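Suppose a colleague, Dr. K., hands you the sequence of a protein chain of 124 amino acids and asks what its three-dimensional shape might be. Before reaching for any lab equipment, you can write down a predicted structure in token form. Begin with the sequence itself:
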Amino acid sequence: MEPVTSADDVWRALMEDTQGWWVDDPVFRAAYEHPTLRALFPMATHGTIKFFRTAWSEPDTPAHDLPLIACGGPPYQVIAAGYERIIGLAATAEEAAELVVENLPPAPVIPGSTCEMPSGGDQR
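The predicted structure, expressed as tokens, is then:
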């Protein structure tokens, strides 16, 4: 099996999966439909959707410095990285996705990189 190399590949695998707990969760559809979040690498884990700027590959794990969404609402909790605090509650999955985008920290500068990484604010 080829290693996952793009966020699009990870999203495709999540959205085409018919066995995962997230299959009918509206948070995944809302996050997928938001262009800023779709540029990030999603991960479904422990009733949440987490976002990463780089691909997940064992044994290396990417920095978890982005907000996440606790599924199972409404309301949906948007939580700061590392479960530091609840950023806010959202009445809809779309509002939760937007709240994540509004709270994305600035993208780190990667020396020698010419690509732009998603950061906070409305990118639509």
